[in-house]
Amino acid sequence: MITAITMPKWGLTMTEGKVVQWLKQPGASFAAGDELLEIETSKITNVVEADGAGSLIRIVAPEGSTLPIGALLAVVAPPETAAAEIDAFVSQFVVVEPADTGSEDVAAPTPRELEVLGRTLRFLELGTGDVPVLLLHGFGGDLNTWMFNQPALCSDRRTLALELPGHGLSSKDVGSGDITFFTEVIEAALAALTVERAHFVGHSMGGALALALAARRPEQIATLSLLAPAGLGPEINGAFIDAFMRASRRKDAAEALQYLVHASSSISRAMVEEFLRYKRLDGVASALEAVAHAWFPQGRQAVDLTASLRALSTPVQIIWGSGDRIIPVAHSDAASPAAVHVLKDVGHLPHMEKAGEVNRLLRAMMD
Amino acid sequence: MPVKTMRQALQEALAHEMRRDPTVVIIGEDVSGGAGTEGGRDAAGGVLGVTKGLIKEFGESRVIDTPITESAIMGAAAGAAVTGLRPVAELMFSDFLGVCFDQIFNQAAKFRYMFGGKARTPLVIRTMVGAGRSAAAQHSQSPYHIFTSVPGLKVVVPSNAYDAKGLLIQAIRDDDPVVFCEHKLMYDLRTEVPDEAYTIPFGEANVVREGDDVTVVALARMVHYALDAAEKLGAEGIECEIIDPRTTSPLDEDTILDSVERTGRLVVVDEATPRCSMATDIAALVADRAFSALKAPVRRVTAPHTPVPFAPSLEKLYIPDPDRIAAVVREVHGFVQ
Fold first, then answer.
1. What global pTM score does this model have?
2. Which of A198, A333, B54, B179 could form a disulfide with B147 if both were Cys (CB 3.0 to 4.6 A apart)?
3. B197 contacts in A (CB within 8 Å)?
């Protein structure tokens, strides 16, 4: 059988992607989960992994080419396949644009809004299933934090990505901005969404929130996955927090965001622009200031949840990048070693920098 | 995110700031948009519909229709600004600046300096620029370079709806006089624009497209033509970096110079006439400050040094187009000493 590798759609806004590098060459065979190529998106470069085993017969999209989502990138077929057959497959390939199919499951996902404690919160719901997955972003993050994860997790589950107050396009009023405020907001949001129990996945500050919620309402939480969580030690990169808060121009913003990823990877221009567009909104500067003041005063973490982590009866895993320059990976010592996954050459965004691996770990935890 | 026209984006910026700050007022010819017509006030919402709905929400004390007298509009607005209001004055066509230049050039622009820094002049002058509607020589010019040449004025030249909203809110909140130039062919251009208020700082260029071969600096409508040209050139293997300065005063010199340091080649695209213009100014900046980086002569793609023709066929030739831009970029790219 001849099949196609096509340009994936990651996140809400992706319309095209750029082929950065092929990691498999024509003629190579691969197994499910093998890394095939790197694609530059509106955030950072991500790796396309193989769905199943096969042989890469022909690369159609050369390195450096920018193509719309759904476009043919390469052909997968048994090695003995005749060249003419492959030619015919390539020439007859039709790009299926999600918007053109009219079917609901591939229509562009649209975030919705809910009213909680006098604030409007944006959330994105994808997929269906019994026990949903709740995704909680970190300080300064938004729904798009999960652009590589939510589309992968939603194939057989209900997933809910919540945009916290002060973040993304949710209301900018963060009250005291402290952990009590945010946990109350999340509890109210879950009640409004009639979610009684969920798998909690939290990144950074969102990890601390997930942990705090697990301690308060253990019955509400099926499993807990913490990605580079806050709250497990006093250290945090104060220079990053300062740069993140101060940046109002592209150059400063790019420098601040660079701290987030492993030194060798790079932040795209579109990600910098998206960050600036967020920071320019009325109310964002004071919201971030209130949150930073409550959580990271004088460049130290004020929230300590190590006792909560130790007392936890919920199944928990911690995923951390070995090269995290925001919160040191050593904070994972607070957990039992069996629950900790340290990813090599990864910074503070494991779910973006090594999306495939993190998605596998998340699935394994929930199954 | 909602997609809006530049007209809607500008209207939202005005409405938002008028709600937020009671000292913001609008003054100009037919800004209520239809007084004296059958439909009455707000029937048209201003000559191009930008002030639609404002008279209804804010009333005639804050949306002030004036007689056809630009000198009185700008004089009243400058005086109001220096005595505590934040007027947004409309100079319907920038071509009419000659009638009210004293009020802008010698009064509003000088107040802060002449009063020893004790006076603030939070005045915005919204005005239309640009050719392409066959509106003839007296209604088609792009004289933002004239405003730019005046110390004490800030000058904004947006190229899309998102920028227009953020820059207009910034202009209204700014404590100095700002001339806000709207290209009359761009009101219907759409892009994603948040419902919320936001500001874009002045003096921060937008890198619209990244490329390593040729830096192309373009303003307003020419940004889109430069993008069209860059698409074609990309297929030929020439990658343009397109820079939209967004404000000509202050001008983001660093972004332009950094880009030329990398590409070694500069083409400036400007719909205005070429003498003493933005194209000439930016060419001079690069010749002065990045000479050693240059691999080819700096080239300008501009209108000719003539009035804007009325005849549509001639007007089309007058305005730089993607083919002309692409041809000049190819020459610069292929230049051999």
1. 0.89
2. B179
3. 281-282
